């Protein structure tokens, strides 16, 4: 049984694919595109807000790393979200999208002095990662209060989920203050005692692959620490709990599983008082808001056989599906096959590999899948790729970033597209590969009048 939401998503996706081929958005001149279902994104935001509705004030932020495309961030701002940023680039993207500073949370694990100064001066909420960073903020504030909320990230060390690289609460994780290490809790309480401006705790327990009870257990540890700090200090100093993101996504179907409502039910069972309104809650969901609304679509360039295996060569590989290609067991994707007119393909199936354009043998987005027989000119779609796929480009083989389009389908089935990101031009690829310094290395060679310190312009440029 599939839910109405899943049904709508599938119907809209198929309509958009057909129309993209009809309109030539996907074709020989642009054989790879990303598509984003605008109504799907809005439905996810809505489900999130409804699930957390209650007495506790909640600020929902979107984790920009999941999809830092500016029009997407703008849409989310319009829908009432805040934005969690973890690098100067993400911060600039969020500001360009129109997020006001009071709706931002800055979380980078490697914030520079300059970045901290910016956040502190503009009242952007920050979560500090470790005791050295706390000391750095002490020096920057020199007695002044911070303009915005300041939190401390803690690692409840509750253990790993199914994917090691996605598990942030292992005993040796690089994130936050490791709470179960000897003396850590006492040190955190002491840190709050000495800093009245420190008023939040932050725990992002893990992402894809982390079971809900594990996440809930980590949030419970952060909640209990907040209670301990406030009780010990005899004042309500911790006023906010940032519970991170990490709701896993079902990459095996069109369903939203688990739902935000199921997550909140799990949290209510594990930490009943979390929602009583004494703490402002902050969330930082990424993947679960965007993944199921995104599709990567590529033309099939060639089909062939090798050692008895059928292979379809497409333009979507490691550059847009990096995790899937390098960790295929952890990040399998569903594949859809469409004919040259962009209509879902029926008919006899065959077992095949779906390959990308990158020059290494492992560049496969699916292996040994039974799919409708594919011919050159058909379209292969990779589903659930709205987060961390086309928005997290890997520039292997100097492959350009593909265009991304948002779409809406009205009641009559009419598809409207909006550009989200233009395809990167080859000129831009060359420019970002150092074209401005084309002669710089040759100029270092003997006989080119540019030994260090000879004062020539080239050497000045090369050593600048
Ligand atoms: C990546 C990240 C998130 C978002 O995780 P999702 O699994 O995409 O929901 C939230 N908070 C922090 C600190 C993160 O690093």
UniProtKB/TrEMBL annotation:
InterPro entries: Ala_racemase/Decarboxylase_C (IPR009006), DAP_deCOOHase_LysA (IPR002986), De-COase2_CS (IPR022657), De-COase2_N (IPR022644), De-COase2_pyr-phos_BS (IPR022653), Orn/DAP/Arg_de-COase (IPR000183), PLP-binding_barrel (IPR029066). One of its GO terms (biological process) is lysine biosynthetic process via diaminopimelate. The keyword Cytoplasm does not apply. Pfam families: Orn_Arg_deC_N. Its cofactor is pyridoxal 5'-phosphate. It comes from the Bacteria. One of its GO terms (molecular function) is diaminopimelate decarboxylase activity. The modification N6-(pyridoxal phosphate)lysine is found at residue 65. Keywords: Amino-acid biosynthesis, Decarboxylase, Lyase, Lysine biosynthesis, Pyridoxal phosphate. Residues 43-290 form the Orn/DAP/Arg decarboxylase 2 N-terminal domain. The active site is at 359 (proton donor). This is Diaminopimelate decarboxylase. The lineage of its organism: Bacteria, Bacillati, Actinomycetota, Actinomycetes, Kitasatosporales.
């Amino acid at each position: 049984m599939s839910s109405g939401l899943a049904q709508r998503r599938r119907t809209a996706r198929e309509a958009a694919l057909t129309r993209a081929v009809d309109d030539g958005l996907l074709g020989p001149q642009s054989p790879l595109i990303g598509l984003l279902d605008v109504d799907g994104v809005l439905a996810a935001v809505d489900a999130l807000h409804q699930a957390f509705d209650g007495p506790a004030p909640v600020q929902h932020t979107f984790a920009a790393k999941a999809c830092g495309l500016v029009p997407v961030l703008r849409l989310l701002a319009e829908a009432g979200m805040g934005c969690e940023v973890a690098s100067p680039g993400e911060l600039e993207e969020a500001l360009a999208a129109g997020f006001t500073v009071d709706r931002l949370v800055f979380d980078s694990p490697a914030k520079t002095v300059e970045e901290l100064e910016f956040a502190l001066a503009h009242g952007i909420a920050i979560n500090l990662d470790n005791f050295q960073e706390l000391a750095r903020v002490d020096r920057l504030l020199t007695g002044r209060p911070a303009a915005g909320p300041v939190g401390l990230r803690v690692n409840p060390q509750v253990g790993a989920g199914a994917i090691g690289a996605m598990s942030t609460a292992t005993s040796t994780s690089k994130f936050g203050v490791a709470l179960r290490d000897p003396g850590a809790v006492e040190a955190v309480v002491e840190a709050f005692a000495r800093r009245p401006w420190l008023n939040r705790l932050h725990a992002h327990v893990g992402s894809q692959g982390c079971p809900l009870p594990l996440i809930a257990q980590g949030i419970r540890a952060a909640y209990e620490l907040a209670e301990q700090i406030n009780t010990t200090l005899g004042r309500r100093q911790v006023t906010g709990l940032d519970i991170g993101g990490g709701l896993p996504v079902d990459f095996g179907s069109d369903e939203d599983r688990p739902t935000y409502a199921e997550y909140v039910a799990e949290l209510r069972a594990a930490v009943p008082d979390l929602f009583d309104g004494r703490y402002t809650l902050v969330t930082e969901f990424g993947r679960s808001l965007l993944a199921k609304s995104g599709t990567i679509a590529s033309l099939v360039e060639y089909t062939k056989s090798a050692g008895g295996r059928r292979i379809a060569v497409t333009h979507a590989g490691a550059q847009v599906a990096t995790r899937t290609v390098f960790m295929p067991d952890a990040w399998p994707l569903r594949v859809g096959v469409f004919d040259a007119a962009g209509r879902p393909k029926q008919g006899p199936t065959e077992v095949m590999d779906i390959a990308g354009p990158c020059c290494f043998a492992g560049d496969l987005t699916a292996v040994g899948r039974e799919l409708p027989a594919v011919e050159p000119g058909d379209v292969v779609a990779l589903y659930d790729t709205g987060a961390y796929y086309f928005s997290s480009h890997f520039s292997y083989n100097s492959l350009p970033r593909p265009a991304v389009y948002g779409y809406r389908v009205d009641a009559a089935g009419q598809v409207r597209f909006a550009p989200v990101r233009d395809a990167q031009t080859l000129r831009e690829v060359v420019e970002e590969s150092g074209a401005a310094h084309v002669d710089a290395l040759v100029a270092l060679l003997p006989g080119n009048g540019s030994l260090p310190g000879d004062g020539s312009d080239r050497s000045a440029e090369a050593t600048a």
